[in-house]
What we know:
The complex is a heterodimer. By secondary structure, chain A is mainly beta. Chain A is built from no helices and twelve strands. Helices cover 0% and strands 51% of the residues of chain B. Chain B has strands at 4-7, 10-13, 19-25, 31-38, 42-51, 54-57, 64-66, 76-78, 87-94, 103-104, 108-112. Chain B is globular. Chains A and B meet through strand 5, strand 6 and strand 11 of A and strand 4, strand 5, strand 9 and strand 10 of B.
Amino acid sequence: AQTVTQSQPEMSVQEAETVTLSCTYDTSENNYYLFWYKQPPSRQMILVIRQEAYKQQNATENRFSVNFQKAAKSFSLKISDSQLGDTAMYFCAFPPKGGTASKLTFGTGTRLQVTL
Amino acid sequence: DAEITQSPRHKITETGRQVTLACHQTWNHNNMFWYRQDLGHGLRLIHYSYGVQDTNKGEVSDGYSVSRSNTEDLPLTLESAASSQTSVYFCASSPGTGGETQYFGPGTRLLVL
């Protein structure tokens, strides 16, 4: 079975600091996509960043970047210069089979609190 | 602007009643999905569709059904609501060309008494 594991149920970071959320997954596929979604208190699911497994370069989106280690099946999210608006649940997601993202399996999430 | 909407946003129903949750997207996406979100479980896939007349079961499909009669809509029906189906339900869509992002609706909070 394809699985996604987020081992940090809760994390806290001070404003302007950097925090890294971890995610590991299991797959026998070679080409696939990985996603980080953010769910703020409004409950809306918002895409943060996407990584294509065949690309060597780690994806970046402004203050958000990933550390993708394919051999280790690790996909961590780094948030730089944390802001109060980053307070949210963060979910790692991964398509269970095949090279498309047509279905996603989600981790159980990491609740991030950004404090003053 | 294109969007994905869900209705109702909140619903309270009684055990044994049939309930239908609506999902409508205006992106003309081929793929549509229904997830439920419960504490400690993240989001779990209930049903999904890759196009009109196509429906498939996800990992937690028991007690739920969907139908896809057009591109825009994928209603989710709880045939006989149970307390275990109290949850937050999310609809999502994606273009269907492979590797693309899923876009989520705002969610429906369902309480089964």
